[in-house]
Amino acid sequence: MRRKGLAVLGLAAALTIGGAVTVLAAGWQQTASGAWEYYDNSGNRETDVWRKGADGLWRYIGGNGYMVTNSWIDDTYYVDNDGVMAAGKWLQLESNSGNSDGLVWYYFNSDGKRVEGMWKKISSKWYYFDEDGEMQTGWVLDNTYYTNESGAMVTGWQKLYPPEDEYYEEVSKNEPVESNSGDGTYWYYFSSNGKKVVPDDASGSEYQERKINGEYYCFDYTGRMQTGWRNVGGDSTIENYKYYDENGKAVTGTWMSLYAPDEFDDYGEVQWYYFDSRGIPEMGPEEGQATSKDLKRVNGLTFLFNEKGNPIYGLHKVYTDEDAGEYTAYYFGSDRMNCAMLTGKQKVEESDGNVVQYYFLDSGKGYTGVNGGYLYYMGRLQYADSGDKYLAISLPTSSGVKNYLVNTSGKTVKNTTVRDSIGTKYKTGSNGIILKINDEDVGGETFASPQEPLWWESWDNY
After folding, report:
1. Which residues in 335-373 are b (16+ Cβ under 10 Å) and which e?
2. Band of the pLDDT at 4, cuts 50, 70, 90?
3. Do the beta carbons of residue 251 and residue 291 sit within 8 Å?
4. pLDDT tens digits for range 43-91
5. pLDDT digits (tens, 9 = 90+) for 121-172
6. Least confident piece of the model among 96-105, 156-165, 196-205, 368-377
7. Closest alpha carbon to 86 in 9, 20, 171
8. Residue 396 β-bridge partners
9. Three-class SS of the chain
10. In the prediction, which pLDDT does 371 show?
11. If you average pLDDT over residues 190-197, what whole number do you get?
12. Percent of the chain whose predicted confidence (pLDDT) is above 70
């Protein structure tokens, strides 16, 4: 049997051997020098064996026949200054492995064996011991768990310095380590079993989201909690991005003005985003490709989002029947701060800078037809130039066309006869439809096509 002499701190247990010493009698005997020996029933001096004392505690007789003190036995057991085997207790000793400097903690089970290479629950807390039985602190087991200064495994949120190998790995790439707080520490979350939260290998994503206590958080492949924009879905669409505030919580159910994620940031300007109850940014089609089904209701107002997740503003073409190619105008306010869909009569600045009256139904659709005595097409007021006085317009309908006569204010000319600036004579009915021109029936004749809205170009929205 092997033994090593080591100092024991804070331990003092008296060796009590009952009865008077009888030379060569079976049991424990003390020599004149004070050393202890053990004799069997035949009076033979024993070596390399464990024996109990009268106090019921185990002691070890070494190869020289004397009781061992302050020593490791088989690198598994330890006997203290009184020779008593440590059992069911902690001991702080000089490292027995040579891998650590100074004092380290060991724990010995009730049978005296030290705990090695495993987790051990002691007084309701978990501790990890390496293959040499030394209690570990800090990051353990491939940086999957963390034990505090007392060695106890932590759970829940912890603000920690990253493992040294991760820190130096990033520094070697010339990538500065940006911590959550600026002091080099990061927030990590450890589940009830002590494992830190990291993305699943199967996800294929550098980042992954987890729901913790009713809130969504994002973690990178090392388990560091993230803030700001993060792609948690893989594909490069705005719907796969989420935004995490300074506390790491996903922004949900609200508007926020933010700089776009780098791959969507064409102009370096702050944009508006709306995040739903799961934190997913609202997203729509490319401008000019939207249908009425793409309209989104948010807090009682209607918006149209583009493919970058921003609510658009201004006058836009929206398909009402994509299959038939039918479309009309919708109006989403004059700027990015006022971009909810508007209805009723509106003064709209068109893309050429001119301000024109429009009329939109409650659904937001630009109206085609006569309303309040004025003629509209796709919501846009139709009117004659000031130099012409009147304008004959062929308005398309489901059954063909209807020919209307409007004046310079866009009002239909009803139930009268008038002449334009070049002398052309028009006779109209009670609904403003042209009946005769120069006293001849109109018949199937058509006139000027209605003026379509002047759509806003996409670059005007950024």
Report:
1. ebeebbbbeebbebebeeeeebbbbbeeebbbbbebeee
2. very low
3. no
4. 999 999 999 999 999 999 999 999 999 999 999 999 999 999 999 999 9
5. 999 999 999 999 999 999 999 999 999 999 999 999 999 999 987 655 554 4
6. 196-205
7. 9
8. 401
9. CCEEECCCCCCCCCCCCCCCCCCCCCEEEECCCCCEEEECCCCCECCCEEEECCCCCEEEECCCCCECCCEEECCCEEECCCCEECCCEEEEEECCCCCCCCEEEEEECCCCCECCCEEEEECCEEEEECCCCCECCEEECCCCEEECCCCEECCEEEEECCCHHHHHHHHHCCCCCCCCCCCCCEEEEECCCCCECCCCHHHCCCEEEEEECCEEEEEECCCCECCEEEECCCCCCHHHEEEECCCCCECCCEEEEEECCHHHCCCCCEEEEEECCCCCECCCCCCCCCEHHHCEEECCEEECECCCCCECCCEEEEEEECCCCEEEEEECCCECCECCCCCEEEEEECCCCCEEEEEECCCCCECCEEECCEEEECCEECCCCCCCCEEEEEEEECCEEEEEEEECCCEECCCCEEECCCCCEEEECCCCEEEEECCEECCCCCCECCCCCCCCCHHHHC
10. 96
11. 97
12. 89
Say if CB 11 and CB 91 are below 8 A apart.
yes
On the question of pLDDT at 397 being above 50, the answer is yes
Give CA 10 to chain center in angstroms: 50
Structure tokens at 22: 């009888």
How many CA atoms, within 13 angstroms, populate the side-chain half-sphere of residue 33? 5
Rounded distance between C-alpha atoms, residue 62 and residue 317, angstroms: 95
Q: Which residues on neighbouring strands pair with residue 436, listed in sequence order?
A: 427, 441
CA dist., res. 312 & res. 216, Å (int): 28
Amino acid 296: pLDDT: 96
**Mean pLDDT, range 106-118, rounded to an integer:** 98
Q: What is the mean pLDDT of residues 442-456?
A: 90
Tokens representing 7 are 């100092």
Distances (CA, A) of 268 to 230, 258, 314: 18, 10, 21
